């Protein structure tokens, strides 16, 4: 699993995990806002970015791969932040690794019952469909789907050093990720929704949502996470991707959560 380190080598570790069809570049604007005080580590999940490959794509496999990175780096007292598909990995590694002290989940409903995903999304898990989607979908269609992940009117390209970064990340993603997110993950969330995992974990959890998330029901999600015991924060001017749209607010919320008093 490819990873990148920035910031203060002596600082508390913050591990940033991206979502489906993304890469560590989706935190490019967040890192400089944390690097003065914290040791910031970003990963490319299996099947994504410079990690690549077609193995270890399901949420549980991603969790064990990330746990191995934490072991390799010998981290202690680490905060793990997961965005969208990466929330499963953040909660998973928090549950199995004593190296994790806080967990942040961002822009993910507890299960797909609260999803507002593009029509027919489940079909991409069928044989041969991912190859057709990857090879035949023109860029303008990809941009149209991507816009659903941001607040209305946000210039997606402005959130990246390379305005075409989202297209590059999708192009190099393993085709097997479609099945992992549309089928395997759906079954796992049905068996154990993320709010049930939050309730069952003995570590502080922060849930961040953008008010204008067009992929998941924000209000219903925050209600369920709050009931499960998570601290909940809503970014009013963000959509599904606050780490790209509102990096100042995301960094400020992470800092606030780290210094917040914990119940005895």
Automatic annotation (TrEMBL):
Transferase among keywords: yes
Domain (AB hydrolase-1) ranges: 14-252
Keywords from the UniProt entry: Acyltransferase, Hydrolase, Transferase
GO annotations of cellular component type: membrane
Keyword Hydrolase: yes
Pfam family, one: Abhydrolase_6
InterPro entries: AB_hydrolase_1 (IPR000073), AB_hydrolase_fold (IPR029058), AB_hydrolase_sf (IPR050266)
Family annotation (Gene3D superfamilies): alpha/beta hydrolase
GO MF assignments: acyltransferase activity; hydrolase activity
PANTHER family: HYDROLASE, PUTATIVE (AFU_ORTHOLOGUE AFUA_2G14860)-RELATED, MONOACYLGLYCEROL LIPASE
UniProt name for this protein: Predicted Hydrolase or acyltransferase (Alpha/beta hydrolase superfamily) protein
Species whose genome carries this gene: Hoyosella subflava (strain DSM 45089 / JCM 17490 / NBRC 109087 / DQS3-9A1)
Taxonomic placement: Bacteria, Bacillati, Actinomycetota, Actinomycetes, Mycobacteriales
